[in-house]
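Researcher: We're teaching a course module on how sequence relates to structure. For the next exercise, students receive a sequence and then see the predicted structure as C-alpha cells, so they can try to spot secondary structure elements on their own. Here is the exercise chain.
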Amino acid sequence: MQFQFLSAEQAQEVEAMAAQIIPADDTLGAREVRVVYFIDRTLTTFDREKQANYTQGLKDLQVKTRELFANKSKFSDLTSEQQIQLLTRSRKASSLNLSDCTPSWDFLPNPNTAATTTRPDGS
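Model: And here is the predicted structure for the students to work with:
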C-alpha cells in the first residue's frame, strides 16, 4: 500500500510514535493494525488542514531526537525506552505541537502507562 501524504520516512516516524502510544499487548497495537495508513488517509481527506502541523511536528520531533540523543537522527531508531522518554518529555514541555497533529492526541494514554490502562470493557 502506498502513502498518499506522508513520505515513507515520515510514515516510519509516525508509526513509531503511534506504537508507543498504543502498544500491542494481549490485543493488537497501532503498528499491527497499521494505523499509520489511517492517519495518512485522514490527512488527505477530513483532516487535510492539519498537513502543515504534521510536517512541522515531524521536523520538531527530529530536532528533539537529536537534542536528547546526539548519536541518533530519527525517532524510529531510538530504543523503546528512549522513545517513551522523548514523548513524555515533549508532552510535559509541550515542545512538540502534537495536539494539532492528531485529532485524538488528548485522549490517548501516557506512553508510560499505556500498557496498564483499563479498557472500557474493564479488561
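Model: If you want an answer key for the exercise: The CA atoms of residues 106 and 118 lie 17 Å apart. The chain has one domain: 8-101.
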